[in-house]
Every structure is written in structure tokens, then in C-alpha cells.
Amino acid sequence: MNTQIKHLAIQSDIQDRLYGFYTELFHMTSFSPDDRGAVTDGNIGLNFNQRSPGRQAGLDHWGFDVDDLDAVKVRLQESYPSVDLLRRPPTRPYATLGSHDTDGNYFDISTKKQANRTGVYAEGQIVKQRFRRIDHVLLRTMNASALAKFYMDVYGLGWAKEPTDGPTYHLTDGTTTFVITQWRINDFEGGGIARPALDHIGFTVEDLEAFKEDLEALKEDNPEFAPKAWRESAEKEARLGLLRRCEYGAFQLWDPQGVLIDVSEAG
Length: 267
Description:
Elements (H helix, E strand, L loop, with lengths): L2 E10 L2 H12 L11 E3 L4 E6 L7 E9 L2 H11 L5 E3 L9 E4 L5 E5 L22 E9 L2 H12 L2 E2 L8 E5 L4 E6 L14 E9 L2 H14 L12 H10 L7 E4 L5 E6 L2
Parallel strand pairs: 1-3, 4-7, 8-11, 12-14
Antiparallel strand pairs: 1-4, 2-3, 5-6, 6-7, 8-12, 9-10, 10-11, 13-14
């Protein structure tokens, strides 16, 4: 079965600033300058969802495209009957169903046959893949080993690299790496504790030094699009130290909402 990670969603009250940050710095694009709710790198869409009461701001969930929804349903019924599927409202142009894994991490499911796909998700829309693109996403969760098996059993993801003894597992949809790592409270020693959830987005760029220069230019020319202010402190360094443990990143930053990002140079 062919499953692909096709979108990531950020809950935010500052959609225009996020749009400016990702289009200016990562060269992502939308199909209309009037639609600032979603951009794409040519493969994955990044949604800036208006945060409603009761929703926490930040990196919220991801979305799978599957080519055989019936097969997903059968696999869940046979092996994971506690996992539910929920029909999403027709206003979602990138989600047929909502679902979750055995740790309760929520994600969307879509199919190319979905009739209401619009914008960057519309079938037939062509966007040239950017040199600056989403390369990986990392999930911190309570049962990393079991979840790696879940996503392989149900959604057919494969190994990006052969597993060792944990606690981190590297899966792939053939293009994007899905990193699942064990959530441990001791990992947050010295800094603020983040709940089990999506941790960060990883990008590759064509030239890391050029990217850093672009970041400095963005801060100078468009400070409203610059990364969120973060007071220098031991807690900040502790949290960034945890982010730096991800083997795919060579440079770390965050967006105006505070979503963590790591960046590497394409090989």
C-alpha cells in the first residue's frame, strides 16, 4: 500500500506572519496570494489553522494520503480494534477521516479520490518541488517501539534505516522520514517540559550558509516574520540541546509561532 505524509498543521493566531516566514525563508508557495492558510514545498502542504478556543498553539498534527482506504480499515479491524476513524467535515480539503494511533496521537487521512481537495491539495495542481523542502518530522511518544510497528502494519511505512535497540525509530514513506522517539521526562531536565507530541519539522536546503544569510536578512528586512523572541537562558539552551540530538539537523531555529525547526544541507 502506498502511504505518504502530505500535510502538517500548525495551530496559530498569527497566520500572516507564518505565511511570510515560510514563503520568504523556505520558498514555500500557495496558489493564491489571497490564500495564506496553506503553503507547499511541492510535496508536503503546511497548514496554518486558525486557533480556536480550547486548542493549543503550535505544531498540531500531520496528514497521510493513502491509496487504499479499505485496506487501512481492514488492518485496523483485524489488529488494532481500539483505533477509531472519524468522518471529517466537508470543509476540510485535505482530510477525509481523522484517526489516531495506539498512543493517542491524532492525524488526518485523505485519498486522491476525495472530491473536495482544493488549493495546494488539489489533484492536478503542479508545483515544482523546492530546493528547500520538508525532509523529516519527529514525534515524541510514550511507546515508540509499538508505534513504529503500528505505522508499518497499518500504513505500510518502511524503515528509513534498520532499527537498533531504540529508543528512536526511523520510518519513511519513500520521500519523507518519520522519526518516532521515546518520550522521557528526564530528557527535559533543565528546561520546560513538553508533552508527548510532534516535536519539530526538519528541512533540507541547497546551501546552509546561504540559508543562514537569508535568515539574517529576513530579521533585518521583515522583522515581523522573524522567529519568535526567546529570552536567553539556561532553559532555552537545554531545550535546544534536546532538539540538537536529532541526527538529521545541523542548524536549529523556530518560526514566529515558536514551532521548532532543524535544517540540514542536502547531500
